[in-house]
């Protein structure tokens, strides 16, 4: 197993990621992990390790650059604002991570996917909106904010895993995303878990007033859904 901190660049911005690649006689599919609004942390790095157990190389990425972590909801909100406001900046930062991943030794560059959590879930959706061709993108309790940016033909298969009680996503946003993906003739799935709040995959989430609450059953079910999705999309590459 190769496990190390890596640096990659989006222009002049240095991003600090966490790379883990199981030993394999053949190149492995790579799954990138996009972080919550806090920034890349132990949570995402542990998800990368869980992906290793499925037989994939994994790279938890750094969208903000410099390995920055917010220390409060206010700081976290300030960190995401530039990317919410400028979707081209957002998309280019994500594409830079993918391009870096494609060049890694031991990675099958034809089999790349991204998963993301909360803000990182929106990152997965935004990467699909960019028109970049990945095997698949998965959003866990992602933000669904639309933008004025014109979306391109969606080439990546998309799986959105959502908590029905998520206060950060409106029913209008759900319908808008579904309409957007249908208009783009995307291959998309949307799964809504009942009695489930935002951040349902994070065992440390326990703030009912904010609407961020861990849900053991939805956590397990969503990971199984992702596992099946990734196997399907990687098996069907070039078909």
TrEMBL record:
It comes from the Bacteria. Residues 19-233 form the Dienelactone hydrolase domain. It holds the Pfam family DLH. GO terms for molecular function: hydrolase activity. This is Carboxymethylenebutenolidase.
């Amino acid at each position: 197993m190769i496990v190390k901190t890596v640096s990659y660049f989006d222009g002049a911005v240095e991003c600090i990621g966490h790379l883990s690649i199981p030993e394999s006689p053949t190149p492995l599919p790579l799954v990138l992990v996009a972080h919550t609004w806090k920034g890349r942390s132990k949570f995402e790095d542990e998800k990368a390790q869980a992906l290793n157990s499925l037989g994939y190389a994994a790279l938890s990425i750094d969208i903000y650059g410099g390995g920055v972590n917010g220390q409060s909801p206010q700081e976290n909100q300030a960190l995401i604002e530039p990317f919410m406001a400028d979707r081209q900046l957002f998309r280019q930062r994500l594409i830079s991570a993918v391009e870096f991943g494609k060049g890694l030794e031991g990675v099958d560059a034809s089999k790349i996917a991204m998963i993301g959590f909360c803000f990182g879930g929106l990152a997965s959706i935004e990467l699909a909106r960019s028109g970049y061709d990945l095997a698949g993108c998965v959003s866990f309790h992602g933000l669904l904010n639309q933008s004025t940016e014109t979306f391109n033909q969606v080439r990546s298969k998309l799986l959105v895993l959502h908590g029905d009680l998520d206060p950060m996503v409106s029913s209008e946003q759900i319908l808008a995303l579904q309409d957007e993906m249908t208009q783009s003739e995307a291959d998309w799935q949307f799964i809504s878990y009942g009695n489930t709040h935002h951040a349902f995959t994070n065992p440390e989430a326990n703030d009912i007033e904010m609407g961020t609450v861990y849900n053991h059953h939805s956590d397990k079910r969503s990971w199984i859904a992702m596992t099946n999705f990734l196997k399907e999309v990687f098996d069907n590459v070039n078909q």
